[in-house]
Amino acid sequence: MKNTVICILTVTVLAILNTGCEREQNGELPAEESRLLYGFLEAKIIDSGTKEPVPARVYAIGSNDSLYFAESCIPYEKPQFLKRIGYSGEHFTAVDGAFTVKLPVGAATIRIERGKEFEPIDETVVIEAGQTIAREFMLNRWIDMASRGWYSGDLHVHRSLGDLGVLMIAEDLNVTTPQTVWGLKREPGLDEWLAKADASGVIRVDDRRLFSVLGHEIERFRNSAVLFHHTGKTVLPVADIEERGLPNMRLIENARAAGGYVEAEKPWWPESHIDIAAGRADFTGIANNHFTYKSYLPEHPRNRTEFGSDYAEGVEGYAAYVLDLYYAYLNCGFRVMPTAGSASGVLPNPLGYNRVYVKVDGGFTYDSWFAALKAGRCFVTNGPLLVMTVNGSDTGDTVNPSGGTVRVRCEVSSLVPLDRLEIVRDGGVVLAVEPELAENATVVEADIPVTESGWLAARCFERRDDTVRFAQTAPVFVEVQGREFAPKRYAVEYFLRKTNELVVRAETGEFESDEARNAAMDVFMSAKFLYEDLLKRSQ
C-alpha cells in the first residue's frame, strides 16, 4: 500500500537570513549553519482512517543532513550516546498532529512513524529561502492488532508522566509502566499523580491506552536490574534497600505482598539467574533496551563469551546470546515469560520501540493485560508481528500430544521482508524457513516431532543489515505422558557456576555492612541449593 500524500503550497515572504534554528546552543549557530538560508515546513499529520490529526514521531532532516526540531513539539535526544554507539536517538513528537519546522534551503527528508502498525512515511520536501511550504501527511494503518485482542506495552519507561499520554498516542502504544521510583530517584510530583490515578494507580488515556503512575526499578551493576510492576499505590522501599546494599529479594517480597509482578530486567545481569530462580521472577526482558532504533548497546558486565564461544560480534551476536539465555531459563524449568522495554528517557530509543504484545480475552484493563502477560499470551518485538499456536493452543498453554507430533502454526505480519522464521524446541531450531509475504503477511504450519516433555516457541527476523529487528513468542509447554520434564544439564551447570561465583564474592568481597553480606549469602545459598537440586534431575 502506498502512502497518500496531499500537498498544499503556501508562499509567505519571510526574511530568514542568518537567523537562529531550533538546535542552536547558547544563542549561536555553528559556523557552517550561520551561512545557510532557511524556509519553513508547516505540516499536518492525518490518520487516513479517522481523517483526524494525530500525534506522531518525526525525523526532519535538512539538506545539510542535520536533524531539526519543530517550534512546538516534544523534542528527544541523548547526545551522550552519539560517541558511544554512533546514534543519539534525535527526533521530535508532533503533539497535536501538526508541526512547523525551520529547515535550510534544498531537499529536506521528512520521516514520520507511528508505532508498528502504521506505514512509515518518507517524503522529500524542497525548501526555498523565504518561503513556507504547507503539507499534509496521511498515515495509513496497515494492521490493527487491538481489534484482534492484542495490546502492546513497553515495560521499561523513563519519560515524564506529563508527556506520557500524548507519547503513547503518537506511538500507538496501549500500556506503559514508567519507573517513577528508580533507585534513589523519584518522579517529581508523583504524589499528585497518585492522587489523580484510580485505586490501582492507573491513568486511562483513552479506550485503548492506559499507564500506571507508580513503577519501580532497582539497578546495581554489581547485582542486577529488577522492575516491579502493578503494585497499585504501594511505594516500595527501593532507596532504603539500595542504600543498605541489601539483596533484591527484600523488594521482591514487598512487591509480591502488594500484589505486583517482578521482572528480571535483562537475562544477563550478574544476579538475574538468582532473581529468576530464588525470586521466581514473572518476566525477563528479551526485546530489551540494549536493542536500539539504530545500533545497539553491548552487554555488561557479563559477556556473551561466558555462555558460548561462537557468538558473532555486534548486534547479531547479542540477539543470539539473549535468546539463548532465555531458552536456558526455560530449560531449567522456570516458566518465566518474555517482555520488552525501551528505556526511553534514558537510552536513545523512542517510546515503544521494543514492545510486548499481549492477547487479552474480554475487556481490556490493566489487570487483565498483566494477567494475560503472566499467563504467557504474548510475543515480544521491535519489528515484525508473530503469533504462534500449538495444536490450536495459545502460548503459555500446556499441550499433551498423543501421536508423537504437534501442529505448530505461525502467523507473521511485517512491512519488511523476512530473513527467516524459526521454530525452536527446547532451545534448538527444529524448523527454519524463509517465508514469502503476501500483502504483508503469511502463515507457516508444520508438524513438529515431540518425544520428550519440554517447550516450543517461534521467532522471526527481518531481512536487514543495519540492525536486528525480530519477534519472539512465549513458549507453549509440552507434556508427553510418561516422559516427565528433565532440566537440561548445560543450562543448570552454567547457572550453578555463576551462583558459586557469587557465593565466593559474598565470602571475600566488599559489602556495605555485615547485614548486607549475610543477607546476600542467604540468598545465594538458597539459589545454590535450588540449582544443585535441579542438577540431580537434569539430563
Structural features, described:
Helices cover 22% and strands 32% of the residues. 46% of the residues are buried. The radius of gyration is 25 Å and the shape is globular. By secondary structure, the protein is α+β, with helices and mostly antiparallel strands. A hairpin with a 7-residue loop joins strand 31 (454-462) and strand 32. Residues 1-29 have low confidence and may be disordered.
What does the overall shape look like?
A: globular
Helix vs. strand class: alpha+beta
Mean residue pLDDT:
93
Strand residues, percent = 25-35%
> What is the third-level CATH name, the topology of the largest domain?
TIM Barrel
For the report, how would you describe the main beta sheet? 12 strands, mixed
What is the tally of beta strands? 33
Indicate the CATH architecture of the largest domain: Alpha-Beta Barrel
What key phrases describe this protein's structure?
single chain, about 550 residues, alpha+beta, TIM Barrel, 4 domains, 12-stranded mixed beta sheet, 7-stranded mixed beta sheet, globular
